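Can't attach files on this board, so I'm pasting raw text. These are the components:
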Amino acid sequence: MTTLTHDPARTAPAGPARNARGPRLGGPVWLVWRQHRAAFWTLIAAMVIGVLVMVHLRGQVMDFLAAQEPTARRLGGLPSEFETHGDRLHTIGSYLDYIPVLAGVLLGAPLFAGDLETGTAKLVTSQSVSRMRWLVTKLAVPAVILTLSTGVLTAALTWWWNPLKGFSEALSWTTFFSVTGVVPVAFTLLTFTVGAAVGLVLRRTLVSMVVTLGIVAAMGFLWSQLWRNLGHVLSLSTHEGVGPGAVQPDLPTQAEQQGQGTYFLTSSGDRLDWTTCLDEIENDRAHTACLESKNVVGWSLDYLPLSQMQTMQWLGAGIMLALAAAGTAFVIVWGRKRLL
Amino acid sequence: MDHAQSPYGSGTEFVRPPVGAAAIEAQGLGKEYRRGWALRDVSFRLPAGRVCGLVGPNGAGKSTLMGLATNMIRPTTGALRVFGAAPGSTEAVLRTAFLTQEKPLFRRFTVAETLRLGREFNPHWDQEVAEGIVRAGQVPLKAKVGTLSGGQRTRVAFALAFGKRPDLLILDEPMADLDPLVRRELMATLTAEAAEHGTTVLVSSHMLAELEHICDYLLVVANGGLRLAGEVDELRAAHALLDVAGSGPVPAVGPHTVIESGRGDGRPGVLVRLGGPVAYGGPAEPPTLEELLLAYLRSPDAPALITPSARVGDIHDIITRDRTKAVTA
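---
Top answer:
Structure tokens for the assembled complex are below.
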């Protein structure tokens, strides 16, 4: 903005020179940015460095792949040097798991607790800006920056992982389910909101950070246990018997098998688990007789195919965002009524 | 001063409160915390344009009253209005500035950034006034607030409150950590600003002698209730200090109400609230504000005295006000 476009209606004389580095902001947005700028700059710097590293490493692995035979590009078909490339991707992917934790503990928890602890919440609310606007801005500015940085990092990781999908066990879609697509952004927003709500209620920074860490860890554990339920489990069966010559059903490429191993399918359609007739396994004839007595006609297995990954991610993200919205509503209602 | 002229003699005659804008009006105001009532059944009216001292012992409910006026605390019973608007409403928020006892500031902000906070958050911000107050104390604008001395921080907090150009300025123990010179200077700034802009000021303080210099109105709270409210001159005129020689017996005080007798320090005598013409033979004179306040602080059970201008408006008052509103609307 040049001096010519300076608003002449502005009654207050121009203050000291604005910070040339920071974006030009006004009102509560300026305050939130100024108050948490160290955290925001750290986040942005981490994002830039992370993206640069990923672009570089992806370039390396793409060069490596280009040097390989096209037919070798599948699970187990690549030389052992590929492991280094796969490990790097896996390691950096697992770092992205920490973003939601950090967002909740370092950004969410101190957000209101800090202001309540030092009394600056009183300072701000006794100015002319409504409490509601302050609360909303305080949530919105970090949320936007978190969405942006997490989104960019996740996109870079997804872009890096896509050509290597399923090339090794460590690169399967289930390993990368929670660090690609929309999931990291949604989970980060959720943990941030949870941290903010905890800080608002507990009003002490350190206590809020510890409690948030506990809650976020519990949420992460629950998610890791439950996210597979978002998918629609498919089954695959054979009806050619289970004798020595019979072929077990083949798991589709990159699908993840569910349940307890491969089941035995009976003629009535029931499934018996893999321990059936295990006692007779030493003796082929007795084993076959045992299975026949139970009318076993083939094998059956459950799996989650790669094709469901995106649907499941969106479904999970939807649930997380709904919870985050509930958390936001709680912060606003609580903050308006019992902030001080 | 002729005490017989005092309009509060019998306490039965009715004097209409003057109709005018009230900066603060409280009706049956009460606040109960878990530990008990901090403030109970408080009704008063602070006319606009006054500099009002709020006095009371620690824990008497002063901060609670200020919190109620600034929407930091919600009342348990009753209601309070700031210029006729509910605390927390846009109108009330725009017209009120509040300096809390702790004077919280962002420690990592520079002084200039702290003033920018005021500018960004207040549409009527006056940068010149704010910078003037800061400069008068030689506080560098580039210094971080966390590195300033207590007095300098108070000055910055003052600048933030004044720069808002409020119609009602509420200051909770503003002078506690200032040296006498700075205290005097800031008090002078306060009175000058208030006089120039017609700002109503509500200031709580334990510095009774200093309140006398700046206040023309008074609210005294003790044990969660209002003990005194009204113009300083009228309150003083309604009392007398009856001189008693040495440790002689308390004289017959006739129609007067004894507020305090046998005082330990200061001038010896009996402080009474006048109930009629001074018939006492000995010398009688109006007490100083400090004497009056000390007497009431020592005798928290003394009957309350609310002068007419501090009484909550009756129905005529409300009708007049509503008519003015209808005309301006």
